[in-house]
Every structure is written in C-alpha cells, then in structure tokens.
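As a warm-up, study this chain.
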Amino acid sequence: MQVEQQILANVERWLSQHGQTQSWLAQQLDLTPRRLQQYITGQFKLTADQIASLAKITDQSVSQLVLPVDNSSTSWQVRGTAKTYTSQAALTTLALATQQLHSLQLVERLRHAQ
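Now compare it with the structure written out below.
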C-alpha cells in the first residue's frame, strides 16, 4: 500500500469516528470535493504540505497517519521534493515513523517466534 493510501485510509477512519464528511475535509484543505476525490482515487498525489495539513486537521501526528489500520505488511513509496520547512519536517517525521513501525514489527515477529 502506498503512503498516500495509508494516510487517506486513516483519515477516512478518523472522519467516520468524528462524524465528519469528505466535503468538510475538502473545505478544511481548501480543495473542491471533486479534487479531494481525485486524491482519494490516486489520480493526484498528496504533497508533504497536504500530509502535514491532514495531520493538523485530524489532530494527529504524521506518524499516526502512516501507521496501518490493521497489522498487515505495508510498503510505501514517496515521490517528489520537499521545498518548504513544513514539507521537510513532515518527510522527516514520516521517515522516523517508518523506522519505528519496522522496529515494532520486528519485535512483534520475534515475540511470536519464541
């Protein structure tokens, strides 16, 4: 699963848990509902700034947004450049979250192997 899909799955879960709609989210992101749908369907890729905005809107860290909803194996692919400080910080947080996730998965595998 690509990182955008994982983030959007977590955002969808958050919207459902908090009684919010995609239209509400589009408004918060200053997007049209149609453009948000294009992100959801993968026609457009999320930018680091948009990921940071999603984290802020949902009151979560970028780390929380990238964690799998289930404990299945996940792989991510991130493309593009980080031109602003916010984008760079979001990508750094994403990289750290990925390292933490892999460490947690390794510990869990070791526990099950014993």
